[in-house]
């Protein structure tokens, strides 16, 4: 009744922002991401008849704010297995939580893997992805490695297809993550997305233009065309942040160092260095580059005042069981 799974965060290149259905946590747009090879979330799920309620510990501390979502995931697993046992979930992150490093993505991808194994449920990737998505939309993408697309459900369905566009070793890009603050973000993604849907005049245009961005990214990945991927990824990133800023009240996830990093990445690319940026709902900058440029990119970003640390990583595999 116990299993441990590991997962890494993923970074969206064509961003997910907005929900079609909050109750089922269905995204309003598809998205394309890369799964990283580091940092890691490791989650152990233990079902026991000695527990009166579910428990969730993050880095050794009880974490009440996420317990509801964790229990919702566990409820679905329990319903599938016919069990009514409560569970203790212990999750360890070797990176800042809630600061735009996709900790909920790796967290729920590891949770569903471990939870299903602990209950001896034989679920396929799509079933696991649908479960993870209920916890956190982006988590469905961390079930797979390399370049991953999360698509919208077909009419009448609540299943959001996940598919691999290219394996990690078929186009091994590198990423330098510039940490500019380790504080938790001021407005969480779930709340931020809803605020944009309800208040931004740009929201319908965001939803309507997503398919064209997805098509451009798919084609760039299929052709291993770095420049084309750079252009569509920066476009999608800035469009998402433009939408967030043009909500009411506007959400500004950048700090000063974030903006300096963007200028530095563009200056490097103008000099011929194969690198582009993307930023999620937090102030960290992810500089995606060809492996031969990683050292130069990391050095250039580390020199920017306000950049506290650079985490270098590559592309990695999807979530997997490590024990159970
Ligand atoms: C993404 N983000 O595509 C986008 C870009 C943040 C910015 O997916 O509400 O934590 O739990 O489904 O998955 C973060 O959103 O949101 C996210 P919920 P989630 O990576």
Number of domains: 2
- Please name the CATH architecture of the largest domain: 2-Layer Sandwich
SS element count, helices: 8
Strand percentage:
15-25%
Helix content: 25-40%
CATH class of the largest domain: Alpha Beta
Strand order of the largest sheet: 8-7-9-6-1-16
Small molecules (ligands, ions, cofactors) in the structure: ligand 2P0
Poorly predicted sequence stretches spanning 5 or more consecutive residues? none
Give me the Rg, rounded: 19 Å
Topology (elements, then pairings):
Layout: E1 2-7, E2 10-14, E3 19-21, E4 26-27, E5 31-35, E6 41-48, E7 55-58, E8 61-62, H1 64-81, E9 86-93, H2 103-118, H3 125-135, E10 147-150, E11 162-166, E12 174-179, H4 189-199, H5 203-222, H6 226-245, H7 256-270, E13 275-278, E14 285-289, H8 294-302, E15 309-314, E16 320-323
Parallel strand pairs: 7-9
Antiparallel strand pairs: 1-6, 1-16, 2-5, 3-4, 5-10, 6-9, 7-8, 10-11, 12-14, 12-15, 13-14
The chain binds ligand 2P0.
Ligand 2P0 binds next to helix 4.
